[in-house]
């Protein structure tokens, strides 16, 4: 009785890398009026875990999201300008115990 080995090709393949090939759906017709406040986990100079918060445009939100998997939006917080576009530093929040 021959053994069915076809399963061996699919089992154990765990390469689930998210594809970075995304179509850039930037439309120049829309005004940049959507600034959202997000926060993410970072590390201070002395190694202390901190939470950073900034109000960012869509492009900069994507930059932060790529850098930090912990980036998440702050509810109901909108701004009128992008901190990074204006050269402001992200605000540092006290580390919250979760
Ligand atoms: Zn920006």
Helix count, DSSP H or I runs of 4 or more residues: 1
Low-pLDDT residue intervals, each spanning 5 or more residues? none
Count of beta strands: 4
- The residue fraction in helices comes out at 10-25%
Structural class: mainly beta
Order of strands, main sheet, comes to: 3-1-2-4
Largest sheet: 4 strands, antiparallel
Q: How many angstroms does the end-to-end distance come to?
A: 57 Å
**Strand composition percent:** 25-35%
What does the overall shape look like?
elongated
Task: Give the bound compounds.
Answer: zinc ion
User: H/E series, N to C?
Assistant: EEHEE
Let me know the average pLDDT.
78
Alpha-carbon Rg, integer: 20 Å
Q: What can you see in these coordinates?
A:
The chain is mainly beta and about 100 residues long. It has a domain of about 70 residues. The chain contains one helix and four strands. The longest helix has 10 residues. The model has no long low-confidence stretch (mean pLDDT about 80).
Secondary-structure map:
Blueprint lengths: L34 E9 L5 E8 L1 H10 L4 E8 L11 E3 L5
Antiparallel strand pairs: 1-2, 1-3, 2-4
This protein binds zinc ion.
Zinc ion (ZN) binds next to helix 1.
Produce a short descriptive summary.
The protein is built from 1 helix and 4 strands, in the order ββαββ.
Give short descriptive properties of this protein.
single chain; 98 residues; mainly beta; 10% helix; elongated; binds zinc ion
């Amino acid at each position: 009785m021959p053994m069915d080995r076809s399963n061996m090709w699919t089992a154990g393949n765990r390469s689930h890398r998210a594809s970075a090939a995304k179509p850039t759906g930037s439309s120049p017709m829309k005004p940049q009026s959507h600034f959202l406040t997000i926060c993410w986990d970072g590390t201070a100079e002395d190694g202390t875990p901190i939470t950073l918060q900034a109000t960012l445009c869509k492009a900069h939100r994507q930059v932060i999201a790529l850098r930090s998997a912990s980036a998440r939006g702050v509810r109901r917080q909108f701004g009128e300008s992008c901190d990074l576009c204006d050269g402001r530093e992200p605000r540092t929040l006290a580390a919250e115990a979760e």
